[in-house]
Structure formats: C-alpha cells, structure tokens
C-alpha cells in the first residue's frame, strides 16, 4: 500500500511539473496587464521597441495583424474577467464597498471574536483550530474527542456533540452561550463521506451523510444566526467542495450534500439581503476545495484519482479560510483558485462534461470499475 501511495504521489507531482508552464502561459494570456502591454508595444510604442518585440518572428512571414487580433480578443476577455470578479465580490458583500455592522475584533484569545468550528478535531477542522488559536477564541464542537495537541492551544474550548441530533445541539449551544457568549463566526465544517456507489450504500448510511453534511447546517444556523443579527455582526462559513458543481461516480451522496450546502449558502445570502433586519451585517462564505489530503479523502482516494484531480495538502485550504475570516468579508473560495472554472460546469452540455472528466473515454474503452 505504501509503495502504491508513493507511486501515485510521484505521478501526481510529475503531472504538476508538466502542467506548470501551461498554467503560467494560461494565466499570462488572460491577464490584461500582459496583453495590454504587448498590444501597446506592437501598435503604439516607438518603432525601435516594436522591432525588438518582432525580432524573434523575423523571417517567419507572419503578418503583424495575426498577432494583434488575438491579443485584442485576449485583452477584452481579460478585462471582462476583471470586471466580473469585481462585481462578484461587490455582490457577495451586499453591494457595499465597505462592510456594514459592528467592527471585527481579532488578535486576542481572551477578548476577540468567538469562532465555533464543527468537526474541529481532525482534518480541515483541526488545522483551522490551530490557525485561529491566539487570534480568536475558538469553540470546537465534535463527536470525537479533542486531540491533546489542540487541547494545549490558547483560547480553545471543546464540547462533545452529535450535530445530527437537534436537541443535543440546542443543549450544547445553551452551554456555550452561558460559558462564552454567542459565537460571531460559525464554520460548518463537519462532514462525512464514503467511497461507495448508490447501490452499495445503505439507506442508513446515506441518511447519516445527509444529516451530517446538510441538515446540521440548518440546525446550527437557526441556533446561532439570530444572535448574530441582533449583534449586527456575524460570519457563516460553509465548507463545500468542488463536488458542489460536479457529480462523480462512487461519491454521489457526498456530491448531493455539497451541491445542497452551496445552494443553502447562496439562498441564505439572498434572504439576508432581502428579508432580515441587519442582514447586511452578516458575512457569508462558501469554500470549494478540490481533493485535499484529509482523513475523509482516504475512503475515496482511488475514485478521485480516476477522475483526474490531483490531491493537495490540506493546509492550502485551511490557511485560505483562516486568512479570509480574519479579513471579515464575504466570498466564494475556490481552492486552488485555478479550479474556479469548475463552477461553470453546470452550464455546459452533458457530452462536454463527459469528455472533460474522462467518462466518455472510460465508456468507449470499457474501463469500468464493476461492482
């Protein structure tokens, strides 16, 4: 098993090295600063500068307009992308340039904000707990016991709780409020997933996955959002996935829950925008990492590799989340950021996604994994 894992890791590293030049080229091609400077150099700059730029192409017989026309298109696309990102960030923050509500207080484990993290004893949750320690007060809610290394951190408190039991959540929430006050940041991180097909999954297992990954979000939001609205300060972070936008064989139940929490995040944002008093003071963030090295990924590691997705260090996700929460603003985080394009897959035709994910190739070549 160890040899197989090291072989997979080496293959993944080689794939990243090979892909790096293409990633850099793709970034530069759609970066309007790059294309804009090239356009200026080829069309408006003094002749000696144009000659320097065109020197590598001398003797090729390539007309200047063959370079300028594609650059114009790339420049226009780059500008459109920039405008899109600016408008998207503005919309996610309720169309306010400056956040409304009470100011955030971070930087002290005794006096600053209270952050509640579900599933904080392992995986992403444990790493986020470490990241916030010393910068805020952190309450870890988990059905598992708190690891010793987390218990030693300053300003970290632990409450054992089965978040799929609404009455238990209500009881633990009352204790947290009594001991620490109301959380101003809720990170719905706890998740459950298994690598199994629809027919291999028992109804009880599917119900548990939905209760953990989806229903608990509703329960916890209803428990803590009212106090956030009253305080005119709050942040709800939804740990989604790249699976929010792409359903994959072997983890269909997991994909369903991640699609649903993405809609919950967006739907609650729309209610905060239009229905609730002080709604504009509540930040909403959804996080969409691709496959990262956490305990959960071990249950469907082979399935993710067959889909062509690399497995990344978990710290890449948690560091982004911690940094984003400390900035005190809403957002949608795609991790790594280059996977932003996956959010558009739902708008593409089925045949295209089959080609992109390799499902078509598996179907034509018979590379099926039979149950």
UniProtKB/TrEMBL annotation:
A Pfam cross-reference name:
adh_short
Name the lineage.
Eukaryota, Fungi, Dikarya, Ascomycota, Pezizomycotina
Q: Name one GO molecular function term.
A: oxidoreductase activity, acting on the CH-OH group of donors, NAD or NADP as acceptor
Top-level taxon of the source organism: Eukaryota
- Keyword list, A-Z: NADP, Oxidoreductase
Name the family the entry cites: Belongs to the short-chain dehydrogenases/reductases (SDR) family.
Q: What is the name of this protein?
A: NAD(P)-binding protein
Q: What PROSITE patterns does this protein's entry cite?
A: ADH_SHORT
Q: Which organism is it from?
A: Cyphellophora europaea (strain CBS 101466)
């Amino acid at each position: 098993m160890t040899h197989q894992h090291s072989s997979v890791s080496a293959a993944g590293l080689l794939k990243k090295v090979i892909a790096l030049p293409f990633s850099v080229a793709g970034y530069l091609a759609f970066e309007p600063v790059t294309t804009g400077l090239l356009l200026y150099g080829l069309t408006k700059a003094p002749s000696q500068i144009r000659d320097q730029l065109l020197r590598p192409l001398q003797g090729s017989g390539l007309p200047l307009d063959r370079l300028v026309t594609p650059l114009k298109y790339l420049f226009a696309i780059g500008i459109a992308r920039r405008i899109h990102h600016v408008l998207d960030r503005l919309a996610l923050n309720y169309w306010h340039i400056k956040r409304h509500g009470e100011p955030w207080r971070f930087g002290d484990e005794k006096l600053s904000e209270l952050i509640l993290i579900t599933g904080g004893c392992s995986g992403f949750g444990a790493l986020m707990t470490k990241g916030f320690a010393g910068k805020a007060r952190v309450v870890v809610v988990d059905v598992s016991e708190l690891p010793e290394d987390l218990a030693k951190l300053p300003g970290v408190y632990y409450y054992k709780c089965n978040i799929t039991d609404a009455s238990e959540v209500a009881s633990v929430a009352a204790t947290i409020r009594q001991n620490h006050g109301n959380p101003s940041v809720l990170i719905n991180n706890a998740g459950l997933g298994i690598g199994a097909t629809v027919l291999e999954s028992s109804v009880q297992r599917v119900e548990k996955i939905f209760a953990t990954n989806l229903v608990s979000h509703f329960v916890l939001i209803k428990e803590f959002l009212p106090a956030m609205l009253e305080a005119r300060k709050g942040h709800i972070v939804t740990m989604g996935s790249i699976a929010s936008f792409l359903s994959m064989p072997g983890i269909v139940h997991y994909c369903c829950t991640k699609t649903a929490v993405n809609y919950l995040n967006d739907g609650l944002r729309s209610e905060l925008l239009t229905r609730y008093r002080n709604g504009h003071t509540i930040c909403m963030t959804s996080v969409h990492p691709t496959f990262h090295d956490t305990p959960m990924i071990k249950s469907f590691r082979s399935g993710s590799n067959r889909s062509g997705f690399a497995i990344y260090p978990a710290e890449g996700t948690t560091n982004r989340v911690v940094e984003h929460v400390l900035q005190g603003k809403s957002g949608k985080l795609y991790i790594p950021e280059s996977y932003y394009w996956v959010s558009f897959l739902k708008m593409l035709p089925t045949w295209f996604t089959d080609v992109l994910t390799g499902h078509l190739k598996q179907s034509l070549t018979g590379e099926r994994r039979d149950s």
